[in-house]
Amino acid sequence: MTHASDAVPTPDPRERRFAALRRCDRLLSGVRPQNLRERLAALATDAETAYDLDQRPDIYGDGVVRALEQRVAELLGKPDAAFFPTGTMAQQAALQCWAERSGSRTVAMHPLAHPEVHERKAYSRLSGLHAVWPTTAPRIPTAEELRDSGEQFGTLMLELPLREAGFILPSWEELVAATTALDGTHVHLDGARLWESVYHLGHSLPEIAELADSVYVSFYKTLGGISGAALAGPEDFVRDAKSWRHRYGGQLFQQWPAALSALAGLDRELPRLESYVGHAKVVATALAEAVADTPGARVNPEPPHTHQFQLWLPHPAEALNEANVRLAEEQGLGLFGPWGGRDLPGLSMTEVTVASAALDWTPKEITEAMTAFLTYL
């Protein structure tokens, strides 16, 4: 007789995937997962060249945190910057500051923007702001749409790239037109992934940031940091943003691990991003060819605008996740991150991130690995 206590426990899907990808010989999307010991060792190694480790730890934002803020301000060509423990908090502070200056509690943003999709409507629940959508098309609004939105707003927030639409970026001309469409409107850039956007836009970080009054950037999405973000803009804006950071509970006693990992990420990843963006086009083309005969399958956008893009397949997410883990466990090939269901019936989507581990994959190897992946379905 079998007792309940004798049953083999079902492994946690996240733990199973973590273990499988760590043991993979090759990864196509993302970076190899690290356990805590490996992450600590990597931080200690990278930080040796990122900052003087003989200095004392930061206290409420001085020291290494202040060095990081100054580095970001210089990279973006802004007078100053403030470190935030989360991007969600940074966005709230930015929108609050511009609402106070403009006298308007209305913000124009996209319905797929991060505050709408991933922040539980914090701008409304915590800040009392109201959002308008100049467009629902999967792109930034045009100058005409902004001028004809039918409702006045004091702040325009643009997400570059627009992740939920497929990491979509405008052309430089479209971005200039949108940011200069309305006089007296403050422009805030959600630039969580701005670092890798310069290649599609064809302009430098300071040139892009100059189009906006404030810019938010992330330290973990592309740079591989532990956590954290920065908000850059005029000195008086940054001073006020720091006051809102304190009010929101972001005035942490010490944040040196996150700041060190951010500095290390800037040193390590910024020089590599152009190669990631270039190879993403190779990867996307190979994947598109591998699924060309599968109804409904597609790469979005094709070609990618950054080193990230979406892959859609006509299979349930559960089956795709199982195939992904089995391919990693049995053949040592880690192709994708998690799959999920979205708004298109019968299709599931994964986000492909081309980083250093993917650079040595040839189109033939990608096609062969994709063929092997599909056999598990």
Automatic annotation (TrEMBL):
GO terms for biological process: glycine biosynthetic process; L-threonine catabolic process. GO terms for molecular function: L-allo-threonine aldolase activity. Belongs to the threonine aldolase family. This is L-threonine aldolase. It comes from Kitasatospora atroaurantiaca. Its cofactor is pyridoxal 5'-phosphate. One of its GO terms (cellular component) is cytosol. It comes from the Bacteria. Pfam families: Beta_elim_lyase. Keywords: Pyridoxal phosphate. Residues 61-302 form the Aromatic amino acid beta-eliminating lyase/threonine aldolase domain. InterPro entries: ArAA_b-elim_lyase/Thr_aldolase, PyrdxlP-dep_Trfase, PyrdxlP-dep_Trfase_major, PyrdxlP-dep_Trfase_small.
